[in-house]
Amino acid sequence: MRYRPITFERLAGELAERVLVLDAPWVRIAVDGPSGTAALADALVDPLRLGGRAVQRVSTVDFLRPASLRFEYGRENPDSRYWSWLDEGALRREVLDPLGRNGSGEVLPALWDAARDRATRSARVPLPAPGVLVVDGEMLLGRGLPFELTVHLQLSPGALRRRLPEDEQWALPAFERYEEEVRPAEIADVVVRADDPRHPAVLKRAA
Questions:
Q1: 131-137 and 26-32 as β-strands: parallel, antiparallel, unpaired?
Q2: In the structure, what pLDDT confidence band is assigned to residue 1 with cuts at 50, 70 and 90?
Q3: What is the longest distance spanned by two Cα atoms in the chain?
Q4: Please, which residues bridge with residue 137 across strands?
Q5: CA dihedral 121, 127, 131, 133 (to 10 degrees)
Q6: For 63-97, what is each residue's pLDDT tens digit?
Q7: Cα 89 versus chain centre, distance
Q8: Distance separating alpha carbons of residues 90 and 42, to the nearest angstrom
Q9: Which of 19, 18, 92, 15 minimizes the C-alpha distance to 53?
Q10: What are phi and psi of 50, to 5 degrees?
């Protein structure tokens, strides 16, 4: 595999250019990866707005299930982290589907405050067309969620161990399983090698 060196600023600009040529009322973007997704998703906002698009940012950390469900099999269960921490149904219902064909255009930016383990009580907000939704989070691919553009930040096993906080090292098997079963680098539209956040590189796919 061949990679093209790039900066995250330039990457955000290239992704924005790719979105701006799409003829759709709304474009839904997923920025997927075990680390660094929020920074890239945030970097997309300004170039998209400069291109004349309304933008709504959503993070999956605001769509986790209540603690009673996330920790049903223990607080450090990799299998639960892999498949059942994300409230996938709520993300689809409250965020993605309203921006699909014949959707209302109104999205819920946050559902659940995981730190306080209670509902955020956020109100739905309209995303005017043409608009772009940018969602960041971990293990988003392979679920059949409707996105027009998917970006995967790829980390080697060694880099992942270094980047995960000490108190989250227990989750390493979840990310390993994701790589083995979903193979996100094979299905994402854009793959970014991000072992060193100062020197990212974009996978050059064969023509």
A1: parallel
A2: confident
A3: 48
A4: 32
A5: 10
A6: 999 999 999 999 999 999 999 999 999 999 999 99
A7: 15
A8: 22
A9: 19
A10: -65, -25
* Rounded Cα distance, 60 and 42, in Å: 14
Do the strands 201-204 and 2-5 form a parallel or antiparallel pair, or are they unpaired?
antiparallel
Residue type (1 letter), 165: P
CB 112 within 8 A of CB 87: yes
Residue 167 — φ and ψ, nearest 5°? -80, 0
Angstrom CA distances, 105 to 61, 96, 127, stand at 22, 9, 5
Q: Which residue has the tokens 């994300």?
A: 86
Other beta carbons less than 10 A from residue 147's beta carbon: 19
Question: Would the pTM count as exceeding 0.70?
Answer: yes
Q: How far apart are CA 136 and CA 33, in angstroms?
A: 8
Interval 149-206: pLDDT, tens: 999 999 999 999 999 999 999 999 999 999 999 999 999 999 999 999 899 999 987 6
Residue 33, token pair as written in the block: 């990866």
